[in-house]
Design a protein that fits this description.
This protein has about 240 residues and is α/β, with parallel strands linked by helices. The chain has one domain: Metallo-dependent phosphatases (Purple Acid Phosphatase, chain A, domain 2, 4-Layer Sandwich), CATH 3.60.21. The radius of gyration is 18 Å and the shape is globular. It starts with 10 loop residues before the first strand and ends with a strand.
């Protein structure tokens, strides 16, 4: 189980950058973040949707290569989790970046506090249509078939899927697309933790709740758009912070 209780250096968490060549300001914000805040951390966790779309590890272009090189240059351990946009990140990407791919969910020992890490989309159980699509996309059969296609075919499929996702978002109530409170409590109780960190919903906040009668907390990372969001945790506590992009 990943954990960093032996170091006094802070641990950083980011998610939902949705890196894409059409958003070079976000890429530049990431490179600045990696060159500044991340240089003094003991570990960096990326909790999904790092890229807007990931067609497979065999896809390569200058934009992707620049991000890979920036991660590979980091001196500290990097952990990455699949999101709903980049669930095809695989072994080749990890080999190139030096990152370790985490299961969703994963529990870590975060400076003495057991902490559950998730991307967060699996918590949105009231969005039945999304959960059905998620199950299809995460199946090994679909992924094997998808990766057998040419890169232009994959790109066309991904573009169509993005359009469908945008239409679904516009036609679905916001509370339906948010996490289901009972599911949050269930997964935290199942993991035996009183702290959960996740992204996906683009609603950065700290939420208090009860898990098996005990005080617990859910911390939500924000997406990178006009602001860049990160969590910094160390032996003194945990902070949800942002900066202008």
């Amino acid at each position: 189980m990943p954990g960093h209780t032996t170091t006094t250096l802070p641990t950083l968490f980011i998610s939902d950058l949705h890196l894409d060549p059409s958003r070079l300001d976000v890429q530049q914000a990431l490179l600045a973040f990696l060159s500044n805040q991340a240089q003094s951390c003991g570990a960096l966790y990326i909790l999904g949707d790092f890229f807007e779309v990931w067609l497979g590890d065999d896809d390569s272009n200058p934009f992707i290569d620049g991000v890979i090189q920036a991660l590979a240059a980091l001196p500290m351990p990097v952990y990455i989790m699949h999101g709903n946009r980049d669930f095809l990140l695989g072994e080749q990407f990890c080999a190139q970046t030096g990152a370790t791919l985490l299961n969703d969910p994963t529990t870590i020992d975060l400076h003495g506090t057991p902490t559950l890490l998730m991307h967060g989309d699996s918590l949105c159980t009231e969005d039945v249509a999304y959960m059905q699509v998620r199950g299809q996309l995460r199946s090994s059969a679909f992924q094997a078939d998808f990766l057998s296609k040419s890169l232009p075919e994959r790109a066309a499929f991904a573009n169509h899927a993005r359009q469908q996702s945008q239409a679904h978002t516009q036609s679905t109530a916001m509370d339906i697309m948010d996490v289901t409170p009972s599911e949050v409590v269930r997964v935290m109780a199942e993991a035996g933790v009183l702290r959960l960190i996740h992204g996906h919903t683009h609603r950065p906040a700290r939420h208090s709740l009860l898990v098996d009668g005990e005080s617990a907390e859910r911390i939500v990372l924000g997406d990178w758009d006009q602001l860049g969001w990160f969590i910094q945790a160390d032996g003194t506590g945990l902070r949800l912070e942002s900066f202008s992009i």
